[in-house]
Design brief:
Helix content is 43%, strand content 16%. It is an alpha+beta fold and 341 residues long. The strands form three sheets. It has a seven-stranded mixed β-sheet. Helix 1 packs antiparallel against helix 2 (23-38) and helix 2 packs across helix 4. The longest helix is centred in the last third of the chain and has 21 residues, at 320-340. The protein is globular. It starts with a strand and ends with a helix.
Length: 341
């Protein structure tokens, strides 16, 4: 199916609102979900509505909770999401952190006690659009086995960076340290498709391409063997430990994401002109690099998302079964609201 982005955004916003979210917060969450679809990351898009609705019903999310911001020093803040929506907590974090980084050169925030924050690339891109450099990472609920193990003890633990690129779209690096996103496994299971080799193991710790094995006691595995595992562990310990959300292995783990965000103002270190000249010259050379066999041209991180947005602004491809489930959720929530009124 090809759907109008405005239609998807409307349905998404109404669902979030009828779950008990104030209008401005619902708009923020809906925008983040649809933005993920526009960028081509459907695993972090409106497919999450089904999971989000379950989280509200189970009490894992308090949809009306506003984030609380503590200023720990002139350029360090701590944001407590109060079990509310992750995108709301993260945008609150950036609204406070970006001015601090602009003024003081470097600013750091931790964000904790919130639901799934979504795609990190959205936030580091917002930072880079302000002419600043952003680094982010976060831990999450255990889904990934450590290298050599079979138990899911680590989160998918993404890392992201946003680098301004004057006159062009920012460089956006955003990847999970798991070999595959759990929602992509779910999509494969829904359509009885195999996952790529090297993505999951079954309950006995054996490699598998059957997505159903993950839901029978299996686990995702880190990308890149021991190297991906090392990066995942760093993010697990520092994302969970520094934020106060705690690592997923801890009995005190709060669930959701423990986030660390650091923003740098390049002008504190070198002149504006020198920094951007380096970025422009380097990216020009990379773009003009002779491509390998079967490759049209060399891209930079963020190029694909930028291209996909331009294509999808007129229509977002949507799995028909998933959209029907979302419409069913929409109908049930709006009907219940009308009955209650």
């Amino acid at each position: 199916m090809i759907l109008n982005p405005s239609e998807i955004l409307y349905v998404t916003r109404i669902i979030i609102e009828t779950l008990g979210t104030p209008k401005n917060m619902a708009a923020s969450v809906a925008n983040s979900l649809v933005e993920a679809n526009l960028a081509g990351h459907d695993s972090h898009g409106v497919i999450r509505l089904l999971e989000y609705a379950d989280a509200v019903r189970s009490g894992a999310v308090t949809p009306s909770a506003p984030p609380n911001v503590d200023h720990l020093s002139t350029s360090v803040i701590r944001v407590n999401g109060q079990r509310g929506w992750g995108p709301v907590a993260m945008k609150t974090t950036l609204n406070h952190l970006i001015p601090l980084a602009s003024e003081h050169g470097v600013a750091v925030a931790t964000t904790f006690n919130c639901h799934h924050i979504g795609r990190l690339g959205e936030y580091v891109e917002m930072i880079a659009q302000e002419g600043l450099v952003g680094l982010m990472w976060c831990n999450g609920d255990p889904r990934v086995a450590p290298f050599g193990g079979r138990e899911p003890l680590l989160g998918t633990n993404p890392f992201a960076a946003g680098i301004p690129n004057p006159g062009r779209h920012p460089i956006v690096i955003d990847f999970a340290t798991a070999a595959i996103a759990e929602e992509k496994v779910r999509l494969c299971a829904t359509h009885n498709q195999e996952v790529p080799p090297g993505s999951i193991i079954n309950a006995q710790g054996r490699p598998s391409t059957n997505p159903h094995e993950y839901y029978r006691g299996g686990a995702l595995i880190p990308f890149g063997g021991h190297k991906g595992y090392g990066l995942s562990l760093l993010i697990e310990l520092l994302g969970g430990g520094l934020s106060g959300n705690h690592p997923g292995t801890s009995p005190d783990h709060r669930g959701g994401n423990g986030v660390v965000t650091t923003i740098y103002n390049p002008e504190v270190f070198v002149s504006f002109e020198e920094f951007y000249q380096d970025i422009i010259e380097a990216t020009d050379q990379i773009h003009s690099c002779l491509p390998a066999a079967y490759i049209d041209h060399v891209m930079l991180p963020g190029d694909l998302e930028d291209s996909t947005r331009k294509q999808r602004i007129h229509g977002i491809p949507m799995d028909e079964q998933i959209w029907q489930e979302i419409l069913t959720l929409f109908s049930s929530l709006t009907e219940a609201t009308l009955e209650a009124a």
